[in-house]
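Worked example (supplementary).
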Amino acid sequence: MIIQALAFYVFAAIAIASGVMVVTSRNPVHSVLYLILAFFNAAALFVLIGAEFIAMILIVVYVGAVAVLFLFVVMMLDINFVELRQGFMRYMPIGALIGLVLLAELVFVGGAWTFSGEATQVMLAKTPEIAAVHNTEAIGNLMYTRYVYLFQAAGLVLLVAMIGAIVLTHRQRDGVRKQRIGAQIAVRREDVVEVVKVTKGGGV
Amino acid sequence: MLETLLAHPYLAHPFVAGYVVPTVIIVVQILAIVVPLLVAVAYLTYAERKVIAGMQLRKGPNVVGPFGLLQPLADGLKLFAKETILPAGANKLLFLMAPMLTFILSLIAWAVIPFDQGLVLADINVGVLYLFAISSLGVYGVIMAGWASNSKYAFLGALRSAAQMVSYEVSIGFVIITVLLCVGSLNLTAIVEAQRTIWFAIPLLPMFVIFFVSTLAETNRTPFDLPEGESEIVAGYFVEYSSMAFALFFLGEYANMILMSGMTSILFLGGWLPPLDIAPFNWIPGPIWFFAKISLVLFCFLWVRATFPRYRYDQLMRLGWKVFLPFSLFWVALTAGVLVTFDLLPKA
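After joint prediction of all chains, the assembly is encoded as:
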């Protein structure tokens, strides 16, 4: 048991420390790498509470895809660090104000925390045996059976967002030569090869 | 002998029995996987040179040792004796971390690979997701190397690799989902056991082909080796690396090839199962079948390398997004439909 507790504190401490490093490190690429470290430790915490499916999905989706694209973009930024720090004092008051507002909101939320009646019922419900129900199966049952309409609605929202992104970035350019694979494959020998009888000294 | 040793009062102490002994056992198991793996990696490089030489009517390495069998050792020794060069302006920490990361990722995935019934280091519930997660992390070694080198060729290679690996992961994900629909579990042992009647390569043949091609792209192998592209961007992401740092990239790439072959044989070729459960076939133990299947897939990797020219970059993206993605999505829907219609869904 002591090993589990030790592992929890190690992972939690690294997660928080790397979260702090994300916002404080000067080099944005380092920030993204610390973010990845934070994701990893969050995944490890999920494993510790027995939610191995969510842990793996966290790594596949966030570390394996989202953070790669972050890194992709951040690496290509041309950042002048001196210039970046110049406006610091100018924006400091407004930044501090926003930070204070957020902190106050967090404190209010934490102070006025109550569970709804239904949530308390769920919390008091008997937890099924871990050996009997795998959490992959449990999540699947909840998402695709009980909350299927919400799931579909979320999917639709994502679909609309995706179509919107494509429409916004798509532009039709005229006069661009594109490879048309269908046309290439459909070419017959007769269309492209012409056998010409060349007479001596006559040319083609 | 062993019993008397284990009955020693020192070993019976709860701390020793609870933590030290299991740790020692796990370390021994890890070594039992990693050491043969590294030998396999060394001889895969030898096999690659021999196979491609054979296909090009050459002899391949034949000077160091009998049939050139000591060539991988000689290569390793040569790399070991070289100087490690840190380029000026490189980000030193990330520059050195990138090859280590690539190498470590290619090793830790083997923790969940089952070599036979019960012969697996960690038989976790979400084995196939773990493999998928680890293989999707492989891109970080490449990106970090490309960025930390502070060289434009390395950076171009890294960008290509990032786009390529993310694109092909999508279709790999759909292929895995198709297999999972037929199995009803994410456990790798269960996936192999579900293929007792028929290997998934037969009913899911198109997905098998897509998976194989996607693994080529995922491991940056020919014809998708644009991140290296020696004719355009010198050697891509590892152009600034020398000595053991380069060797770690090299070993990692080949270990990844073996891993992907292992994954192909587990998902589609029935893992350790013999092709038919009858007399001459089931005399041969499971791990040998597994080894034979991995070798077969690896041979295809080498065969492809000796046969195909490199893809153009836009063709690579077109194949990933416009051909494999719609087709695998369609096949997921088809498989699910067939399983539900004919009531073939695996019972939990």
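Two points are worth noting when inspecting this output. The mean pLDDT of chain A is 84. Residues 1-79 of chain A form a domain with the Four Helix Bundle (Hemerythrin (Met), subunit A) fold (CATH 1.20.120.1200).
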